[in-house]
Design goal:
By secondary structure, this protein is an alpha/beta fold. It contains 6 helices and 18 strands. It starts with a strand and ends in a 9-residue tail after the last strand.
C-alpha cells in the first residue's frame, strides 16, 4: 500500500494523494490540485446563490448546489443515503465514529466521488477505495476546478483547548473545512473548541459550528467565536453530548444579542436515531 501513496511535504502540510489505478497521469493530476494555503490568503467569491442544506444526523449532512453534491461526515449506514443524489465530494473531518464509518463510506463511495480525508482516516480505508482520494493535513487546498467541478476546499485546524479535553481532538489530527462553491464560502468546524484559527476566519457566508461537552465546547464559547468571525449565517450542529443536547436556543440568543445581523438557522439534526 505504501508504494501507492505519493507523499507531498509542503511546508507544514503533508498531502497524500491515493490511487488504486495504475495510471500515473491520474496520480500526477491529483498532486497538482493540492496546494498549501492559509486562511488569510483565501479570496472570497462575490456571487451569491442558493445552497441546499440537508441534515442527516449529528455531524452528518449534505450540501447541494445545482449538480454539485457534497457529503460531510457520512455515517449511520447506507439506508440514510439511499434516496440521496450521489456525492461529487466527500469530506471527512476525523477518525471518530460520528465522523467516519467505513461501512457507510463504502456505501456512498462512487467512481466519480472525490473524498478529502485526514491522513489518520486514510490509513483506515482499504486500498480499493483509495481512488480519487486526497489525504490532507491542516492548511491544504484542493482545487476541483481543474476537473470542471466548481469547488475549492481548504482544510483548516480543529482541536481542543481545555486541558481536560486535549485527548479528544489533538491539534493537527483532524480537519475543519472551508468550501467555496455556489458563490459562497462555507465553514465546517468539525470537532473543535473556539480556537484562534476559527475566530480569525473572514468572509464566511455559512458556518456549521459544533457545541457539545465534554468533546468540543460550550454554547457560550461557540457564540463568542461566531461573534468574532461574523458569518452571515450560522448553523448550530453536532450538539449532542454525554449529558444530552446543548442549549441551541441559548446559543441563538447569545449570537443575536451580540450581533443581530448574523442569521442563526436551526435544523433538525436528530430526526434519525
Amino acid at each position: 500500500m505504501k508504494q501507492k501513496l505519493t507523499i507531498l511535504t509542503l511546508c507544514i502540510v503533508t498531502c497524500l494523494s491515493f490511487s488504486c489505478k495504475s495510471d500515473k497521469q491520474t496520480s500526477k493530476f491529483n498532486e497538482e490540485r493540492v496546494q498549501t494555503d492559509t486562511v488569510a490568503e483565501i479570496v472570497n467569491k462575490k456571487t451569491i446563490s442558493d445552497i441546499t442544506v440537508k441534515p442527516i444526523n449529528h455531524a452528518s449532512f449534505i450540501l447541494e448546489h445545482e449538480d454539485i453534491v457534497i457529503y460531510v461526515d457520512p455515517v449511520g449506514g447506507a439506508e440514510l443515503y439511499k434516496d440521496e443524489k450521489p456525492p461529487s465530494v466527500i469530506l471527512i473531518t476525523d477518525i471518530h465514529g460520528d465522523h467516519f464509518d467505513l461501512e457507510t463510506f463504502k456505501s456512498v463511495m462512487t467512481d466519480s466521488a472525490q473524498p478529502i480525508v485526514p491522513p489518520d482516516v486514510a490509513i483506515k480505508i482499504p486500498e480499493p477505495l483509495q481512488y480519487n482520494m486526497f489525504a490532507v493535513r491542516n492548511n491544504a487546498k484542493v482545487d476541483y476546478t481543474k476537473t470542471g467541478l466548481d469547488v475549492v476546499v481548504y482544510s483548516v485546524p480543529m482541536y481542543n483547548l481545555r486541558e481536560d479535553a486535549l485527548q479528544y481532538h489533538p491539534k493537527g489530527r483532524g480537519n475543519g473545512y472551508i468550501v467555496e462553491f455556489g458563490g459562497k464560502r462555507v465553514y465546517i468546524s468539525g470537532d473543535t473548541e473556539d480556537i484562534p484559527e476559527m475566530r480569525q476566519l473572514k468572509d464566511i457566508d455559512m458556518a456549521f459550528v459544533c457545541m457539545n461537552l465534554p468533546y468540543t465546547m460550550t454554547v457560550e464559547s461557540a457564540a463568542s467565536a461566531v461573534l468574532d468571525f461574523k458569518p452571515k449565517q450560522v448553523y448550530p450542529y453536532h450538539y449532542r453530548g454525554t449529558e444530552g443536547f446543548s442549549d441551541v436556543e441559548k446559543f441563538k440568543s447569545l449570537v443575536n444579542k451580540g450581533n443581530k445581523d448574523i442569521e442563526v438557522i436551526q435544523l433538525d439534526w436528530y430526526k434519525n436515531p
